[in-house]
Amino acid sequence: MDILSSAALWFFPFVLPLCVYTCYTDMREMRITNGTVVALFLVFVVIGPLALPFEDYLWRYAYFGAVLVAGMALNAAGAMGAGDAKFAAAAAPFIHIGDLRFLMVLFAATLLAAFASHRLAKYTPLRKIAPDWESWDAPAKKFPMGLALGGTLAIYLGLGILYGR
C-alpha cells in the first residue's frame, strides 16, 4: 500500500468512531448525518498537517473536490444518495492516490459483505435486535450504503497501519 503507515495511524483513532457511527445511522435512519460528514472532514483538516507532508496534505483537497463533483452528478442522476456522496467526498482526502485500485477492490468486497450481512440480518431473527431500523423496511432497491462506505474507510486505514509504507 502507498499510504504512509504513520498517517494511517494518526487518522485511524479519529476516523474509526465516525465510520462506525455512519454505519449505525445509515442502517437506523437510512441517512448519513451532515454532522458526521463535517466531523470527518474536520479530522482531515486538523490531523492532516500532522500526518502528511504539507504538499501532499494540500493536494488531498483536490481529491475532495473531484469526488464531491462526481458524487453530486451521481446524486442528480439518482444513482447515489446525497449523504453517500458527501461522505465519499469527506473520506477522499484520507486515501493515497496510489491505492485507488486497491481501494476499489476493497470497496467492492466490503459492499458485497455489507449487503449480504444486512440482508441476512433482515430476514432472520437477528432483526429483533433493532426492530425499528428503517433499513429493514426500505424498498428492495434501497440499501444503507454508509455501511459499506464507512466500513471501507475504516478497513483501509486499518490495513494502512499494518501494510503502509
TrEMBL record:
The chain crosses the membrane at residues 6-24, 36-54, 60-82, 102-121, 143-163. InterPro entries: Prepilin_IV_endopep_pep. GO terms for molecular function: aspartic-type endopeptidase activity. The keyword Membrane applies. Residues 15-115 form the Prepilin type IV endopeptidase peptidase domain. The keyword Manganese does not apply. Keywords: Membrane, Transmembrane, Transmembrane helix. It comes from the Bacteria. GO terms for cellular component: membrane. This is Prepilin peptidase CpaA.
